[in-house]
């Protein structure tokens, strides 16, 4: 890039995305009031109440699923607060949220306020600026993130890992490198590492991690780290077996939604008793009329034996607006008080020993 | 289930889904006429023309991505015809389409015309009928499909497999069991096996295959088949390196869309020259305004250096309507004539040797 | 505008929108095949079959409702063919379709193929080019259309008119001015004038007609033409009373959808017996989850006593794709043969006498 | 209805919709925080800031447009607070919001919390319960509302009225009947009557008012009240001429959105100078990709010369969630302080004299 390009790039990457802090905004009275309205205000309110019920139910393990570009959009703080307060016990996510966005920020990089208007994507390409709708990312930063994953690969014993195991190593990497001390406290990967909250990314190579892994396997054809997606599924099923009562809070649909619902059936396949998910809330803008999973109703999931229909709610809203409201409601109700730190990572490590 | 339930179940599972046959419907004049209209008719027409351009360009490898419940909805025949006529050279899909739906039908099972109205999903659950919007599936059949995957696992050498390798074994299983002779000819998995068309499922455990694999790994804790999702990414990158000029025809978004776009960047990470995808068509009902990948524009993908903007088209339509029209257009233009059978599976096997 | 602007304008307004001709495309076998698929292909097929049932039922008066920018998008020919073959007996529309677009083209003007990308709307404004998504209109032409409406106002007796009466005068204007002979044959307004098919535009001033009327009333403050929207409602109710059995084919939602459904209740208010609409098909991309009318289900309309639920179908698709398929299906089934020319305009004129 | 039906009806109509009170919820810090996020949170925040700018700009007349079922959904209180604090100066609405819902509640009737699940719309029909998605209405109450409109018609001088004039008579009716004293204070129609805020309903017969008017005209064929929709357009144009600087806050799209944008062009048609709308915010879930007006961008409206592009924002969210947040933001910023009571009704009455 020449000098003009550099200054143009600087001009475009000025203002950084700030993560919203639900602790500052007590939305309880407003969300309660919305419960006597109609349409999505009422659904949002009911969704918040069901998410709060999951917190009140101390037996209930809470699964959080993440799809879409949530971290780059300013929702990282919401998720970190849920983790810190034991409000979520396991996470299933797309790779972008965990690696390209959360781990990326933990390395000290930022997302930038951009725009979708009057922008030439060919120009952005030349400037090495990646666009997510109205947000900009410095591709040069992202390449460092890819390379860091490759570096972690090189440091590990060469064997199959579940994505959870690998992501825990990413957490360990952050913990052991004090140059990230200023950034890691706000990181999902790091906080989950500290609290023993498992993070599953069923399509782990479909993100920045994939670039690091491809680099690693290409240069180590004979013996290398591999990512065993079946092990992911086995491990998350073990979480369900370890804590049968469960609720799910789904942001978007996609693979994470399907994956976490399927564990009820997986228990059955293993001839183990496990109840359907007792609580389920999904924030989505997807439509049910294309028959795809992302917008499929939670009632439909009941026909599959995955989700019970007593406490389920679809909330048709975009996540950047709805997630702070629902999570903030439960946070300010303080029902998380008294919830145990479940540390499923510890349980999964033990289970492994049992089977070994 | 008691006798009443059995007869109720039979009553609900009467009429089977029939796959549409694009060979019977010459839509070329209609789609051409739509090119002089506006809105989605014009977009559909342009999308069809770009897909046809991919066929005319004999250097171009065509990637097909599949997300949503497409096979259960009657689109299997469309895809099989594309494969048979060398109109697609590699497939990236969600697991449900390939395992729960295509392989499932290859075993002799069917999907049923159902309804989303006046149905109690709790009752369906008790009858072991799974619902996909307006379609019914016999869960008892699906359990046999899960078990068949488990059986295939047991028969394989215990090592990490890419999903492609595993799916090829599924094809081999169909080829070697003549009891499926009546069903397998219409199967994507089987036809791809025969033609050497690789199928990648980056989140392979997120489907019926996952149930089989979990069963397998649970009962074989020490030594087992694993699914290496990083290997998937490496292999599909090798396809791009083997045939640099490429086009993508995307049905829905999700992981398959992201995965196939990322290979351009992966080549760069490996310091190999590879052009952006030259042609790109996506059929989707997703909206770009939530910033998620499924609805993100192909222009946005250009900022990431993944897709060129000369021949790209988003078609905002539901796939059951739009896919037969676009695929049918290209089929009846006969531009596939003279296209080589690329047999990327053979190339990937060789590459493996190179690295071993 | 200076010379450069003129040549830029000419450059942008080159290619004209062409109306699709359903007579050229026999879609019957394809639409029938879609009936055994799922999701919207099946809904589209069922919608086409119900619209065809309306044709077969010779007692049934067919109401067509039009919302959205349909004429400018290339659907005028579809509608004209329905009128010519007695396949619709009354039309309820937004003003833009009837005045700004159909009447506009009948005056000899055209819509142009445009684009939504890389266009500066401020520049378009300076060039007097109006944009509808990917379509361009010459604002200078539109001003002539506004003025023509004003001219018609001046020529009329000064009294309240229903929109139907006014639109019939627009048809008469076309019939009496042979300079429009080349264009009027393809016009909805003109063909309805000839066949006595009433056109109602309940928000008549909300379009180019409004500009003409405002000009007229401003310059004739004491005595002027007025548009009585209550009379519209009374007249369309009389149509229902004159022909109690009815079906509705709705393109989009909005005021036309509500208006035509309400006439069943209006009959009841007048203590007249009239059945609910027996057949109802709506093509829409609207969602039901905001509680608004456009996306509200036809089942919901049954709770209001407006639409029966035996033969009703929502088709979730964009109109430029779905309308030619549904209308084309019924056209090629030829069930319109033997349908009478109902000429409701004649009946409404008589009714007026009865009351006078 | 028999006794069983009556008790079933009572059971279904138990819980009433409660209107949210924005005065109780200071959302300013949260909405400001959302301004540094991405996607719709940022758009919502910017929309709120632009609506607040309209308040700060004391020269600016604020037009509020209402489409969708807003009053029945619990948004009446929001709108009444905007009126009381001079935060809106004119309203353009669909008929349902103003007559069937607001005036209806001013007569002492209520909307009920209902459900869209497990409900048989045929049963609702027999019980005379009307459904709006998840909300129930007693059709017997609605018939009284229809009849009240008919009664008002009978009491008026027989001449053409603009919808504004007629709605003002509805306000007067509430003011003069003390039996409504308990309900009318919370009514849009009544508060606008008191403050001189004009309400325009361009498709006035497309609602409960239509039923009353049809009854009136049917029984008074020779001399009757009529609703002149052209006069509506002329009057609202005069509002723009009286106060050229303007902003629009649009809830949903439809006829109200189009109508209020068109007045800029109408001024031009009358050879009067009037600037484009300076500020524009639209809350909508409509999509731009069908080319229809409801989802068309405000940038597109600039090509038509209707809306300036400096302060415009589309907010993609459902109104029950987004409207309290945007209106609440501006309310708690207190920028409405010092805004004059514009009383456009008084100005329109004077204008009338000028022309007479």
From TrEMBL, chains A, B, C, D:
Presence of the UniProt keyword Transferase in the record: yes
Pfam families attached to this UniProt entry: DS
Root EC class: transferase
Signal peptide: none
Keywords assigned: Transferase
Keyword Flavoprotein: no
GO molecular function: deoxyhypusine synthase activity
Enzyme Commission code: 2.5.-.-
Domain of life: Bacteria
Any one of the GO CC terms: cytoplasm
UniProt similarity note: Belongs to the deoxyhypusine synthase family.
Name this polypeptide is given: Deoxyhypusine synthase-like protein
Organism listed in the record: Rhodocytophaga rosea
Upper taxonomic lineage: Bacteria, Pseudomonadati, Bacteroidota, Cytophagia, Cytophagales
């Amino acid at each position: 890039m020449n000098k003009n390009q550099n200054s143009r790039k600087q001009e475009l990457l000025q203002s950084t995305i700030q993560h919203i802090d639900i602790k500052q905004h007590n939305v309880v009275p407003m969300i309660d009031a919305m419960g006597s309205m109609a349409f999505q205000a009422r659904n949002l309110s009911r969704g918040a109440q069901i998410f709060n019920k999951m917190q009140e139910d101390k037996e209930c393990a809470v699964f959080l699923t993440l799809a879409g570009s949530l971290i780059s959009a300013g929702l990282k703080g919401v998720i970190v607060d849920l983790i810190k307060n034991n409000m979520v016990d396991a996470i299933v996510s797309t790779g972008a949220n965990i690696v390209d966005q959360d781990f990326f920020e933990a390395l000290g990089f930022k997302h930038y306020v951009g725009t979708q208007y009057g922008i030439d994507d060919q120009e952005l390409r030349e400037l090495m600026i990646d666009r997510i709708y109205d947000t900009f990312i410095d591709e040069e930063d992202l390449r460092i993130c890819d390379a860091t994953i490759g570096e972690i690969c090189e440091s590990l014993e060469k064997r199959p890992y579940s994505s959870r195991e690998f992501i825990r190593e990413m957490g360990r990497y952050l913990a052991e490198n004090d140059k990230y001390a200023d950034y890691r406290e706000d990181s999902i990967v790091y906080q989950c590492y500290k609290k023993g909250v498992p993070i599953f990314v069923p399509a782990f190579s479909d993100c920045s991690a994939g670039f690091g892994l491809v680099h690693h396997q290409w240069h180590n054809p004979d013996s290398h780290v591999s990512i065993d997606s079946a092990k992911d599924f086995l491990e998350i099923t073990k979480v369900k077996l370890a804590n049968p009562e469960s609720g799910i809070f789904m942001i978007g649909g996609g693979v994470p939604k399907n994956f976490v619902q399927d564990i009820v059936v997986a228990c059955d396949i293993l001839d183990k008793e496990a109840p359907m998910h007792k609580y389920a809330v999904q924030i989505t803008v997807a439509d049910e009329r294309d028959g795809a999973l992302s917008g499929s109703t939670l009632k439909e999931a009941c026909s599959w034996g995955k989700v019970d229909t007593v406490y389920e709610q679809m909330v048709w809203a975009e996540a950047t607006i709805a997630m702070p409201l629902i999570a903030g409601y439960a946070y300010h109700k303080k029902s998380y008080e008294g919830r145990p730190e479940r540390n499923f990572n510890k349980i999964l490590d033990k289970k492994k020993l049992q089977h070994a």
